[in-house]
């Protein structure tokens, strides 16, 4: 049985990480934005060792990912995070990340987030409209 591919986020390479056994049977993808974030020699070495296919998502997928981010009111998602989410939407596959904001966006998109080093989140959170850029969680105010 073929397992679905996965999209790898920057945290897979920036954090001290070894490719888990359960991912070795899958096609591994990432985006050009992720590969552009590899700056330390260690991250570059891990990226080269894993050698994921680099694929940039299409415009429609990027717009859908931005819409999910806006719906969740999460201003912490970077351009790279949006690209990873968009590619996962395009490929209809899980995202491997330890980034809680990206995991939250995956939940919002109906995409499975796979954490590596940390436990990961267990439910989606919507950010309060007046929480600013501080990442405070809260319930949206009723109109």
TL;DR of this structure?
The protein has 143 residues and is an alpha/beta fold. It has helices spanning 11-14, 32-36, 41-50, 59-72, 79-91, 100-109; strands at residues 6-8, 28-30, 53-54, 95-96, 113-114. The protein has a single domain (6-114), classed as 5'-nuclease (Rossmann fold).
How would you describe the overall organization of this protein?
This protein is α/β, with parallel strands linked by helices. The chain has one domain (6-114): 3-Layer(aba) Sandwich (Rossmann fold). The protein contains six helices and five strands. A five-stranded parallel β-sheet has the order 3-2-1-4-5.
The radius of gyration is 15 Å
Arithmetic mean pLDDT: 82
**Termini gap:** 49 Å
CATH C-level class is Alpha Beta
Describe the sheet with the most strands.
5 strands, parallel
| Count of runs of 4 or more consecutive helical residues | 6
How many domains, as an integer?
1
* Low-confidence region ranges: 120-143
Q: Name the beta content range.
A: 5-15%
Q: What is the 3D shape?
A: globular
**Number of E-state strands:** 5
Question: Can you give the helix content as a percent range?
Answer: 25-40%
User: Class by helix and strand content?
Assistant: alpha/beta
User: What do we call the CATH homologous superfamily?
Assistant: 5'-nuclease
